[in-house]
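#random but structural
TW: two for the price of one
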Amino acid sequence: MVRLYADENFPLEIVRQLRQYQYDVLTSYEAGKANQSIPDDEVLAFATQEKRVLLTLNRDDFIAFHQSGISHAGIIICKDDRDYIGQATILQTCLSENSDFTDRLIRIKRNNHPKSSIQIFIYLEYTR
């Protein structure tokens, strides 16, 4: 099963839901890495060293790291959105459909259907 590392800004509600799905999620707080202003490249290096896919809301920096060619155990970028159950559900789908996230960047996005009030989350993979 995929092991995950939630950076310090990642919503704990999503972490809790992923744990209910039986995923191994380590938070920055549990790793002793919270509230230290650790640079994002070091956050990614720690997740990679621990062989954990990084969970983050920080879109700009981690897309840039991915596109620069830095090797990593995987990056999943979620939205800053209070529908935590919706995001955890699509995360669970993404994690169950993929076993290797090495050097892959996945984004969780809201997919708004035209002429409908239904909004669902989808996941997309970004290439280098």
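TW: number two ↓
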Amino acid sequence: LVSRKGDMPRAVELDQRLVDLQPVDFLARYNLACSLARAGRADEAIDALSRAILLGYDDLSHMEADPDLASLHGHPDFQALLGD
């Protein structure tokens, strides 16, 4: 909800808190990646996505189509995560 209102620094902060509370929750890390990507923090977003995948996130087709990650689509590390 916070990210929908455009307060990306606050969204990143809240998602980071969730990751701190649930460090092995791949969905918390995926959501953090989305907030980071929307905040223009591509390298951190890709790191969070990498960790989400290592923890079990496997919906790569959703990741590729997720509008929250649109800013990463041209990034070679994002493409590598997709296996392209």
